[in-house]
Amino acid sequence: MPLVFKFLLYLISIPIFGLGTKFLMLPSSVEQLTIGSHSTLEGVAPINPALFSAQNKQSNILINRGVWIGDVNIMNIAFNQTLGEKVFHFGVNYSGLTGFEYREEKPTDLPLSYFSSYGISVKSGLSLSANKNQFGLSLSYIKIATEVEETNGFGLNFGYVFNFSSDFKIGVSLENIGKMNELISEEVKLPQRRLSTLSKKVALNNSFSTIYGSIDWGKGKAKNKYFIGNSFNWKNSNLFSGLALYDSNTEASVGFSIKVSTVKVGYGIRFGSQKLGNPYLISLDILLP
User: Fold this and answer.
1) In Å, how far from its chain's centre is CA 140?
2) pLDDT band for position 251 (cuts 50, 70, 90)
3) What is the tens place of the pLDDT at every residue in 171-182?
4) CA-to-CA distance for 267 and 263, rounded, in angstroms?
5) Is 169 exposed, middle or buried (0-12, 13-18, 19+ CB in 10 A)?
6) Domain range annotation of the chain
7) Distance CA 47, CA 167 (A)
8) pLDDT higher than threshold 70 for residue 2
9) Cβ distance 214 to 39 under 8 Å?
10) Fold assignment, 3-288
């Protein structure tokens, strides 16, 4: 490979690997995209491993597909299985950029080849309940790669929820405690997230609304992030909304989901003050027999 292209690929790899670690912070459901990052938000692939859930003590499979800022493709597949009072979780998260071209020094109509850059995590975990307490633990294998370099590592995730009542909860979670192998070009660190959440369910005649408030406690020089969200439920439909505040930036999100029989379809979109694009997700949640 000509030296000039090695250098160009190296320059490309720096922002891609920066994205690669941050892909662990991307939402893995329509609810997370719209309502926000909350450690009391249940689901097939929640942020808090204490809240792995399966409807009616059956099995659930969740598939998400969407686009993040910078036309980054994101996809998530998750599966939950009830085991008595425990719930087993297995999931795969992917984010990537495609369409990079490798060309010779002389001009040509077609490139010699194409390549992509991506990040992938494979997660397995378990949650359990004891009286008003819920506990969870998960382990992730993480890999990020470009044409030039690749690295991998492992991360641990912990979670806890206390239920004051069926309508009022407090939750905490700690994510990505681990280490990545070093690259030739730079050291790769796992982005940690430390969340504290309060949530309250409010009954409204034939519907109910759940309000969430969270703080993502910044580490080192990183500033705290604040999330406020709401999930409004009426029969088999849900409306989602959320607001995120951090580093003088503001993000607003909206979305919905509709359940028909054993299948739930959802859509969510986020709008930011930085005007770098509008990330969106489409989800399919299937209750297995």
Assistant:
1) 13
2) very high
3) 999 999 998 887
4) 14
5) buried
6) 3-288
7) 19
8) no
9) yes
10) Porin (2.40.160)
